[in-house]
Design a protein that fits this description.
The chain has eight helices and 17 strands. By secondary structure, the chain is α+β, with helices and mostly antiparallel strands. The protein folds into two domains: 117 residues, D-amino Acid Aminotransferase, Chain A, domain 1; 159 residues, D-amino Acid Aminotransferase, subunit A, domain 2 (D-amino Acid Aminotransferase, Chain A, domain 2, Alpha-Beta Barrel), CATH 3.20.10. Strands 8, 9, 10, 11, 12, 13, 14, 15 and 16 form a nine-stranded mixed β-sheet that branches. Strands 1, 2, 3, 4, 5, 6, 7 and 17 form an eight-stranded antiparallel β-sheet that branches. The protein is globular. 44% of the residues are buried.
Length: 304
């Protein structure tokens, strides 16, 4: 989906005009993938724009950096404040938020620590990642021939830029085969996640999602969905999910900041069908929560 320009980008503590938000071509992260990032959404509510779990996202950004020995030069509070200010300055009612911290210009070579750590936050209007129709009717998925990287190759707990070439390869393969999205298996052959979403399978009235040990990103939306489903009275389990489990699912959905809660209607030609009652209930409650329509979950929202 094309990016829609706004007025300002936050770069290293300064507000910069959108078209001037640039970096040097020899920035370390461009060559070696030494960056960590987040995806966050801000939703329009009756009380004004509200950023969904921004503090949890910024904590994960900080923790991703720690794994790769990148000490961010801004605190979580400073990054949260900058995000709210940026949304306000750009006069946005709802938007996507992309914070990124990366090794900048200084030296070239695999050892990164002599390069500065630059931090940027950008916001812009952005609709449904997989499309409005996908939210209503579901997407068609395929199991990718590309495996998710192992925990001791690139730790999935870190949302690191370089790791996403793995997702890019799987996504391209899926699109070229005529599917909407890809499921990625780990080196043992169990489901890890999709290219940018966590995966949930419904069978016999219970939800199962792969554990973090299977290679799943510790998704903020994943955690939110698990809490919402439990509050709705649906049992939620973390357990290994096989290819056959996907093919035999009563219902299936995926979630992520960009994808929100998206049903899956088909996988590798096996028809799951229209979104089922559990998927619909979780999706409906999720959108009530992020749009500020349920006070029980107000602590997940930071109003701009």
């Amino acid at each position: 989906m094309p990016i829609q320009a706004v007025d300002k980008v936050w770069m290293n503590g300064e507000l910069v005009p959108w078209d001037e938000a640039k970096i040097h071509v020899l920035s370390h992260a461009l060559h070696y993938g030494t960056g960590v990032f987040e995806g966050i959404r801000c939703y329009e509510t009756s009380r004004g724009p509200a950023v969904f779990r921004v503090r949890d996202h910024m904590r994960r950004l900080e923790q991703s950096g720690k794994i790769f020995m990148m000490s961010l030069p801004y605190t979580v509070d400073e990054l949260c404040d900058a995000t709210r200010d940026l949304i306000r300055i750009n006069d946005l009612k709802s938007c996507y938020v992309r914070p990124i911290a990366f090794r900048g210009y200084g030296e070239i070579g695999v050892f990164p620590e002599n390069n500065p750590i630059d931090v940027t936050i950008a916001v812009w209007p952005w609709g449904s990642y997989l499309g409005d129709e996908a939210l209503e009717k579901g997407v068609r998925m395929t199991i990718s021939s590309w495996r998710r990287h192992d925990l001791n190759i690139i730790p999935p707990a870190a949302k690191v830029t370089g790791a996403y070439i793995n997702s890019v390869a799987a996504k391209q393969e899926a699109i070229h085969k005529g599917f909407d999205e890809a499921i990625m298996l780990n080196s043992a052959g169990y489901v890890a996640e999709a290219t940018g979403e966590n995966v949930f399978v419904v069978r016999d009235g219970e939800i199962t999602t792969p554990p973090l040990s299977a290679g799943a990103l510790p998704g903020i939306t994943r955690e939110s969905v698990m809490q919402i489903a439990a509050d709705l009275g649906t049992p939620v389990n973390e357990g290994m999910v096989s290819r056959s489990d996907l093919y035999l699912a009563d219902e299936m959905f995926c979630c992520g900041t960009a994808a929100e809660v998206t049903p899956v209607r088909e996988i590798d030609g096996r028809i799951i069908g229209d979104p089922g009652p559990i998927t619909q209930a979780v999706q409906s409650k999720f959108f009530q929560v992020v749009k500020g329509e349920d006070e029980k979950y107000f602590d997940w929202l930071e109003f701009v």
